Amino acid sequence: VTDGSGSDRPLASCPDLPVEDLVAWLDGEAAPEDAARIAAHAASCPRCAREAEFLRRTGEFVAALPRRRAAQGFDERVLRAVREPDDDAASAPAAPVIPLRRWSAARRAVAAAAVLVVAVGGWWVATSSSDPARLSTREEEEIARDLYVLAHLDTLNAADEEELATVADDLDAIENATDAEEDGG
Amino acid sequence: LANEGPAPPPDEDADLMLSAGRGDEAAFAALVRRWQDRVVSLATRTLGSAADAEDVAQEVFLRIHRARGSYARNARFSTWIYRITVNTSLNHLRGRKARRAVWGEMRPATETGADGPRGGTPEPADEGERGPAASVEEDELARVIRSILDELPERQRAALLLNKYEGLGYEETAAAMDLSVPAVKSLLTRARVAVREKLEPYLTTGVRPREEEA
């Protein structure tokens, strides 16, 4: 860290005043017993005085960043979303209730891959949807599935026919759930 | 210090939240309207992306609604909602990074293009958010500072935004981030020094920080 003046001098290297104390003093957060000492030092040390000025202005600039406003109708969207949590849950993919521990590795992997397809499809739909709640509530599940698939996809190659037949039934169930969700909007 | 002096002012938001917990949906609606701009604003700054900020803000209010029955007046409502906003925003950022790591190659060009350090849709100019006296220079400076904030480690950025942008003291910033006050003090110092270092050349010479030159 340099002082920004083009030299390699350490920033606020004053041995008498750690920069952390200087920042706390500028923020009005220094302990009362320390505040007078820091103020006196900052008044007598050119480097600390300069540093204090830049740090103070930095804080002011961040504080003055423009505020954003919620879009028109944001509150209505939120209130509409909180009234319909049960509908969202009913239309969610079947994946969260799948008892993964009882499945073979191949079955888990294929199911996860299928769910992944559903999730990514949902992501594409959600990003173009006017209902941001669905995207928000699905994202954590999507990420977990993404990572799970990466860890298990290789087991697909070792699956036998019986396992794959079982998996096919699972895939049908998941696809049906997805179709129902998409049909529901 | 923040914990000395007169008793804290009445927390009207906490009253509304307790009413919402008793089933008063009008109270919850009032909370949404009282806080929506602040939540959207903080989410925008934390994410560095206006595009996702309202999604995150909606998730914040949904989480608050789900928790309405268990809310207790253990802390100021503001601390609680700031905490949820920061956590939801940071979770969103991490999810976006993970998704990009897995699926980045499959995204359309518009999703993987030069869209800033954290990969979201760049925040548009803050049109209409400034008073009529705002100058071109001020808008330019705001853009530079946003760019610098984008490059901060996420916890430094969150601490700096809570402290300076939202005006929380060290103690409330620590509570909102579930950290100790010394830890917040350290984060804030590092953030301030990092921002100040990048800002100084711009302020003294007019040269824009490196990331703004492209």
Strand content of chain B: under 5%
The number of E-state strands of chain B comes to: 0
Q: How large is the share of residues in beta strands of chain A?
A: under 5%
| Count of helical regions of chain A | 8
Helix/strand structural class of chain B? mainly alpha
- Summing up helix and strand content along with how strands pair, one would put the structural category of chain A as mainly alpha
Q: What average pLDDT do the residues of chain B reach?
A: 80
Shape by Cα distribution of chain B: globular
Largest sheet geometry of chain B: none
Shape of chain A: elongated
Q: Residue ranges of chain A: pLDDT <50 for 5 or more in a row?
A: 1-11, 88-102, 128-137, 141-157
Number of helices of chain B: 9
N- to C-terminal separation of chain B?
44 Å
Most extensive interface, residues per chain? A-B, 51 and 64 residues
Write a structural description.
The complex is a heterodimer of chains A (185) and B (214). In chain A, helix 2 crosses helix 3 (46-63) and helix 6 runs parallel beside helix 8. Chain A is built from eight helices and no strands. Chain A is mainly α. With 214 residues, chain B is mainly alpha-helical. Chain B contains nine helices and no strands. In chain B, 40% of the residues are buried. Classes of the chains: A mainly alpha (185), B mainly alpha (214). Chains A and B meet through helix 1, helix 3, helix 4 and helix 7 of A and helix 2, helix 3, helix 4, helix 6 and helix 7 of B.
Which short descriptors sum up this protein?
heterodimer, A: 185 residues, mainly alpha, 8 helices, disordered N terminus, B: 214 residues, 0% strand
Short description:
By secondary structure, chain A is an all-alpha fold.
Secondary structure layout plus pairing:
The complex is a heterodimer of chains A (185) and B (214).
Chain A: H1 19-26, H2 32-44, H3 46-63, H4 74-83, H5 85-91, H6 105-127, H7 132-152, H8 161-183
Helix pairs in contact in A: 2-3, 6-7, 6-8
Chain B: H1 12-21, H2 25-47, H3 50-66, H4 77-103, H5 109-112, H6 136-151, H7 154-165, H8 170-177, H9 181-205
